[in-house]
Design a protein that fits this description.
Order of helices and strands: EHHHEEEHEEEHEEEEEEEEE
Strand content: 35-45%
CATH topology of the largest domain: OB fold (Dihydrolipoamide Acetyltransferase, E2P)
Structural class: mainly beta
CATH architecture of the largest domain: Beta Barrel
Largest sheet: 6 strands, mixed
Shape: globular
Distance between the termini: 26 Å
């Protein structure tokens, strides 16, 4: 119950510019503290629930792809530009290509590769792109929500418990995953790759309590680091519906991080 993905999360100059505006050089400093993401979200000019109409490529650079997006506004929590439910919002987003990460490109969490039909909450600002709305908090500017068609599917539709692990280092990472039924798998992730773990649950989902543990070599080659992972329950097995984790560096040692913390 696993699948391998490349997480496709504006041009390189755009990524550097946004980082500099925020006082962070994204090509040198890597991931931001979770408190910084939360601060950026709190300061967002627009907090909206949207459904994407069109996602068009604006620029396909060597490291970063920039998108121009139109979306139907389905809810408004905050809007400094006066957007209302039922209107259309235009904004830009981007994602860093996996091959750029393999070449050593590191930085704040990259936005996901959005597609038409995606439904969720977005945090947007013009701070980094004057006159154009863009992600206010990098990759944490987008929070997926189940679409109306998903919410009202038949009760017979199975649910899934899903987690996704991404390698944000510039090295290949190998780890082991174990479910509570005893099934174990060794997984190798190249830089920029993501592995999706999922467990199919009964329709009522209340009887479904899978437990997933991952283990890997940490600071000491003779010691094994183990974490029990939380899983998101969803009617989709897609990566954007999964609980996200990523491998990164902690004082020079490999560690697993939860970007929501």
């Amino acid at each position: 119950m696993n699948a391998r993905f490349f997480l496709s999360n504006r041009a390189t100059a755009f990524a550097m510019f946004t980082a500099l505006i925020l006082g962070v050089n994204s090509l040198a400093c890597g991931e931001l503290p979770s408190e910084r993401y939360q601060q950026l979200k709190r300061n967002a000019q627009e907090i909206l629930t949207v459904r994407l109409r069109n996602v068009d490529v604006k620029e396909d650079g060597e490291d970063v792809v920039t998108y121009r997006i139109s979306a139907d506004v389905q809810g408004v929590e905050r809007s400094t530009t006066g957007l209302r439910e039922g209107e259309v919002v235009i904004f830009e987003s981007y994602h860093v290509k996996p091959e750029a990460i393999r070449r050593g490109f590191v930085g704040p969490q990259s936005p996901p590769q959005l597609r038409a039909g995606w439904t969720g909450r977005v945090y947007l600002s013009e701070e980094n792109t004057p006159g154009t709305l863009g992600p206010a908090a990098y990759g944490q500017s987008f929070e997926s929500l189940p679409s109306a068609s998903t919410r009202f599917q038949s009760a017979k539709t199975p649910f899934y418990s899903v987690a996704a692990v991404t390698n944000r280092t510039n090295r290949t990472v190998t780890y082991e995953s174990t479910w509570n039924n005893g099934s174990t798998e060794s997984i190798t992730l190249r830089p920029g790759e993501t592995w999706r773990h999922w467990w199919e649950c009964s329709p009522d989902c209340k009887r479904c309590t899978p437990q997933l543990t991952v283990s890997f070599r940490g600071s000491d080659p003779n010691d094994t680091v183990r974490y029990s992972l939380d899983l998101y329950r969803s009617q989709s097995k897609s990566v954007d519906q999964a609980k996200q984790y990523y491998f990164g560096w902690n004082d020079g040692y490999l560690d697993l991080f939860d970007p929501s913390r």
